[in-house]
Amino acid sequence: MIKSELVSLIANRNPHLYHNDAERIVETILEEIAETLAQGGRVELRGFGVFSVRSRAPRSGRNPKDGTSVFVEEKWVPFFKAGKEMQDRLNSANASMSGDTSGDERLALLK
After folding, report:
1. What is the mean pLDDT of each run of 10 residues along the chain (111 residues)?
2. Count of CB atoms within 10 A of residue 49's CB?
3. Where in the sequence does UniProt note compositional bias of the Polar residues kind (predicted)?
4. Whole-model pTM?
5. Which residues, listed in sequence order, are joined to residue 54 by a DSSP beta bridge?
């Protein structure tokens, strides 16, 4: 799902909201999550998961083009850990699906 699909879904499920209001809501939520992570914080959405940042230590890497060794500086990366309810929901959906189920059918089962 992409952001525009999420905005449309929220607007359709809440007919009292204008599409622009739903877009502003989604944008505000995502901006607050990003801002909290940028400040080194953590965002926990019960039943969904936890967004946090993790440090990747400096290391020696390899340039794939010519194979030379390069230094990769320390960096902070976003990390997401799914909550127990989300994991249970995903695993129960996977258990009830056959091996030939497409991604779209899996998403429909999760809804």
Report:
1. 95 94 96 96 95 95 93 95 92 70 59 57
2. 17
3. 90-101
4. 0.70
5. 77
